[in-house]
Amino acid sequence: MPPRPVDHLSSSMASMNVGGSSSGKSSKLISKFDNKRSTAQENYPKVPPIPEENAWKTVDHTKPRTAERPTLRPLNGNRHSPPSAAANSRRHVYETPAKPNSLYKQSLLPPDQRDPALMEVEANKGKLFLKAQYKPGWIIRGLLHEQDYNATSTGSNITVTDRFRSETKFGPVYTKYRKMIVLTMFEDHYLAVPLFTHNGNGLAYKSRPDEFIGIKDHRARGEGLQQSRHEPLVTEVINSGIDLFDVKSTAHVTYALSRKYDLPIILEGQLSKFSINRLIRLFNQFAPTELKDRQGKVIH
User: Fold this and answer.
1) In this predicted model, which residue has the larger pLDDT, 124 or 81?
2) How far apart are CA 146 and CA 166, in angstroms?
3) Taking 80 as the threshold, does the pLDDT of residue 277 lie above it?
4) Which residues of 192-220 are buried (b: 16+ CB within 10 A; e: fewer)?
5) Is the N or the C terminus of the chain less surrounded, counting Cβ atoms within 10 Å?
6) Averaged over 219-227, what is the pLDDT?
7) Which of 180, 160, 184, 158 has its CA nearest to residue 171?
8) Are 2 and 46 contacting, i.e. CB atoms less than 8 angstroms apart?
9) Across 16-30, 35-49, 54-68, 196-210, which has the greatest mean pLDDT?
10) Which residues have a Cβ under 8 Å from the Cβ of 98 and sit 6 or more positions away?
């Protein structure tokens, strides 16, 4: 029950009781107000006690919030300011062990601590381009994942150790940053033909070399290497920082790939207008104009 408030009105009326003539009226007024006050206190709502589980709790601020999340690794200090002595003294209590290679920029690490795979990811970090920016003839570089055909064709799960090969629960996957040439654009994706060097062998061991066409870097001296019956394509613009194209590089015309616009790429340059027209014309020659059913009949 809340404390009884001070009744200033009763005190002031009691102080008026100094003469005999007004003492009767004052007593009646005081009694009347006392009755009203007692009735109001009886009707005052009772406040139930607060359950213990809802009561205030003391929060322990001796360790950071991230200590309760094992997937996060709290970092104290940075590469400009070292962590304090107090932070170092209690770091072992809540810090989650993590590999430094996965947390820092590879170029900032000592050479003996750099991960070759992460170094390549860092070097090939691209950006997104709008659909309206894409043009036929663009030479781009993007990440391409393919099933490891070496393991599939031999029926074995063991292939030559390769830094581009990784194991997944679906089998081995071959991943590489692949150069490609944009052919045409659609609503939410585009078609591009990939470039291959075939481990530096070019088309020496290909049974159908005419499905490929070479490409010549305009910055290189001499004539381009013609590896099939098609004369090599020629670049017109190559952005700064891009290495010379391998002379054995060829575009696989019949192996066009579909790619989404929301995949990051590196724009390396573009073909000359004459070369992109030749590439599209060659692609149209290989592309079927009429699809047939199982009996070989044209579907109309």
Assistant:
1) 124
2) 11
3) yes
4) bbbbbeeeeebbeebeebebbbbbbbeee
5) C
6) 86
7) 158
8) no
9) 196-210
10) 73
Q: Are 120 and 166 in contact (CB under 8 A)?
A: no
**Per-residue three-class SS string for the chain:** CCCCCCCHHHHHHHHCCCCCCCHHHHHHHHHHHHHHHHHHHHHCCCCCCCCHHHCCCCCCCCCCHHHHCCCCCCCCCCCCCCCCHHHHHHHHHHCCCCCHHHCCCHHHCCHHHCCHHHHHHHHCCCECCCHHHCCCCEEEEEEEEEECHHHHHHCCCCCCCCCCEEEECCEEEEEEEEEEEEEEECCCEEEEEEEECCCCCCCCCCCCHHHEEEEECCCCCCCCCCCCCCCCEEEEEECCCCCCCCCCCEEECCCCEEEECCCCEEEEEEECHHHHHHHHHHHHHHCCCCCECCCCCECC
Sign for the CA dihedral angle at 90, 95, 97, 102 comes to negative
Q: Are strands 233-238 and 212-216 parallel, antiparallel or unpaired?
A: parallel
Q: Give the C-alpha separation, 199 to 160, whole Å.
A: 13
56: amino acid identity, one letter: W
Residue type, 78: N
- Which residues lie across from 144 on neighbouring strands? 176
Return the higher-pLDDT residue of 246 and 17: 246
Q: Rounded to the nearest 10 degrees, how much is the dihedral formed by the CA atoms of 258, 286, 253, 135? A: -60
Q: How far from each other are the two terminal CA atoms of the chain, in whole angstroms?
A: 91
Q: Above 90 in pLDDT, residue 297?
A: no
pLDDT, one tens digit per residue, over 91-116 is 544 444 444 444 456 667 777 777 77
Q: Which of 117, 126, 139, 131 is nearest to 193 (CA)?
A: 139
Q: Which residues contact 204 (CB under 8 A, 6 or more apart)?
A: 198
pLDDT tens digits for 41-78? 666 666 666 666 665 666 555 555 555 554 444 455 55
